[in-house]
TrEMBL record:
Protein name: histidine kinase
Enzyme class at the top of the EC tree: transferase
SMART domains named among the record's database cross-references: HATPase_c, HisKA, PAC, PAS
SUPFAM superfamilies given in the database record: ATPase domain of HSP90 chaperone/DNA topoisomerase II/histidine kinase, GAF domain-like, Homodimeric domain of signal transducing histidine kinase, PYP-like sensor domain (PAS domain)
Domain PAC: from-to ranges: 255-307
Any Pfam family matching the protein: HisKA
Catalysed conversion reaction: ATP + protein L-histidine = ADP + protein N-phospho-L-histidine
PANTHER family assigned to the protein according to its UniProt record, in alphabetical order: PAC DOMAIN-CONTAINING PROTEIN, PHYTOCHROME-LIKE PROTEIN CPH1
Entry annotated with the keyword Phosphoprotein: yes
Record's keyword terms, sorted: Kinase, Phosphoprotein, Transferase
Organism, as annotated: Blastopirellula marina DSM 3645
EC number(s) per entry: 2.7.13.3
Residue stretches making up the Histidine kinase domain: 325-539
Length: 546
């Protein structure tokens, strides 16, 4: 008899397993659990079969994930119930519980047992890979169980599968929740989050990068070479050298670096990136994770701060030189005035009319010289304080205007002026730039040679340098040791010539304030001079010869 019962039990077990396998198929998650309780409940003709998950916040509460009912569907979806004073409470303590026909008597405080007429109960704990109880699988019936051994073996078997699936589902849910939280953080932050898969050599970015740099998803792609192509040419070699050394290091560790990336509009954006390196079990670099922030504004502010500090230091130094030079230059006409006032007094006392007349002439000359000096100093001071708005100005027009103002002197001196190249368009204060070219042309006219004087104006362009304008003459030339001196205030290499020595100082000051620079080249006396002006350009203008 016992052998017959065992054979029947094995047959039923096999039948239940086959039916369950067919129902479950390739399912996972909640569909898997639902098919499992459907199969188990039907196999034992139970009134109720269910899978529940212990609440992570309160282990005395159970959330019903899937259930099967034989007759009326009385159990609500997503039911949460208290384990206290119920047969399920034992299962939460990692115990198997079987009550063949006396469950109501054993748990008199469980009102649901009486309400639905349950007399038998069987339950098994669902455990995770660490052996912790995470849920339960239960059968309830309105009649006694007829084969406790079969129910026990099937519960254990099904509980094992349900426990693994519940653990997987929980891990998947936690992963999705973490990914959702991470995505929220990524969406809310102003940083660009990036992930370089070193093994497959692909990079992924958060959506913020498309807003920061202006490129589309397709344009950025996932290839490392794309980001390298956007790096500033000055930054790329240094970054690659740093990366090579960092990856070859024995440890991961945090990192940070600053570099420039070219945005869609062509401008370079300063970015500050930081992150960490992850290595595999063999110690080989596996991936780099990081984030970068657009720090262009702070970098520009830092550059501007350094510029202002340098400018202040330069102005302080310049002020010292200026004070000394001005006091020296103004003293000269004052000495003249003082001397001739004394002489004038003596000549008046002697009643020498012609001498008095000459004395007055010398005094007026000194006054005029002082007036000219003061006017030039005032103009020089105005250069740094009063600037008209920048505008786009064709250099060709400025040169023509300057030549027109000097037309009579140019023709009288017989000077040939040749505009050699297509001159660029410049950006800046038009009035000040005209002062520059008028001063340079006046200088070339003043120090011209006696035979076939000429002036040449052109532009030098290069791939890696801004356009450089030159004004070249074949005049008297300047000894190389005086090349820097000519830009000094009140510097006159030939004291016999007219002027105050302020012109070239004014020219240099204007060009510096406009963001350019000027320098002089001359092989020596009698070999002419060439003044070079380096500045940005927009477009060339037509060539003309005068």
């Amino acid at each position: 008899m016992e052998k017959t019962d065992e054979i029947e039990r094995l047959r039923r077990s096999d039948e239940i397993l086959r039916t369950t396998i067919l129902q479950i198929g390739e399912q996972s998650g909640l569909p898997y659990l639902q098919s499992l309780v459907n199969s188990l409940g039907a196999a034992f003709d139970s009134k109720l079969a269910f899978v529940g998950q212990l609440s992570p916040e309160d282990p005395t509460k159970v959330l019903v994930l899937a259930h099967w009912e034989r007759d009326e569907h009385l159990l609500p979806q997503d039911l949460i119930y208290d384990l206290t004073d119920t047969p399920c409470e034992q299962i939460a303590c990692n115990c198997l519980a079987i009550y063949r026909d006396d469950v109501q008597e054993m748990f008199p405080k469980d009102e649901m047992l009486r309400e639905f007429g349950y007399v038998s109960y069987a339950g098994a704990p669902l455990t995770n890979s660490r052996g912790e109880v995470i849920g339960l699988l239960s059968l309830l019936n309105d009649k006694p169980f007829d084969d406790i051994e079969l129910i026990t073996s099937m519960l254990k078997l099904f509980a094992s599968g349900a426990g693994k699936e519940l653990e997987r589902k929980t891990a998947e849910s936690n992963l999705q929740e973490n990914e959702h939280r991470l995505q929220l953080i990524v969406d809310l932050t102003s940083d660009v989050v990036w992930d370089w898969d070193i093994v497959n050599d692909t990079i992924s970015y958060s959506d913020r990068i498309y807003e920061t740099l202006g490129y589309t998803v397709e344009e950025m792609g996932s290839q490392r070479m794309t980001i390298y192509s956007l790096m500033h040419p000055e930054d790329l070699p240094e970054h690659l050298a740093w990366l090579d050394g960092y990856l070859k290091g024995s440890e991961g560790g945090e990192f940070s670096f600053d570099l420039r990336l070219q945005a869609r509009d062509g401008r370079y954006r300063w970015i500050h990136s930081s992150g960490t390196l992850i290595r595999d079990e063999k110690g080989e670099p596996k991936r780099m994770l990081g984030a970068f922030t657009d720090v262009s504004e702070s970098k520009e502010a830092e550059v501007e701060r350094e510029r202002l500090i340098s400018e202040l230091e330069f102005k302080n130094s310049e002020l010292e030189r200026f004070t000394y030079t001005v006091s020296h230059e103004l003293r000269s006409p004052l000495v003249t005035l003082s001397g001739f006032v004394g002489i004038l007094k003596e000549d008046i006392e002697r009643k020498e009319a012609e001498a008095v007349k000459q004395d007055c002439h010398e005094i007026m000359q000194a006054v005029r010289k002082m007036g000219t000096l003061l006017d030039n100093l005032l103009e020089l001071s105005r250069v740094g304080r009063v600037l008209d708005p920048h505008e786009i100005v064709p250099l060709h027009e400025l040169v023509q205007e300057s030549m027109s103002l000097l037309d009579a002197r140019i023709k009288n001196a017989g000077i040939q002026i040749n505009i050699k190249d297509a001159l660029p368009t410049i950006s800046g204060d038009r009035v000040r730039w005209q002062q520059v070219f008028q001063n340079l042309l006046e200088n070339a006219v003043k120090y011209r040679c006696s035979q076939n004087p000429s002036i040449e104006i052109g532009v030098i362009t290069g791939r890696d340098r801004p356009p450089t304008i030159f004004v070249k003459d074949n005049g008297i030339g300047i000894d190389p040791k005086f090349h820097q001196r000519v830009f000094g205030l009140f510097e006159k290499l030939d004291p016999r010539t007219e002027g105050t020595g302020v012109g070239l100082a004014l020219v240099q000051r204007i060009i510096q304030l406009q963001g350019g620079r000027i320098w002089l080249d001359s092989p020596g006396p009698g070999q002419g001079c060439t003044f070079y002006i380096e500045l940005p350009a927009v477009e060339p203008q037509p060539i003309e010869t005068v």
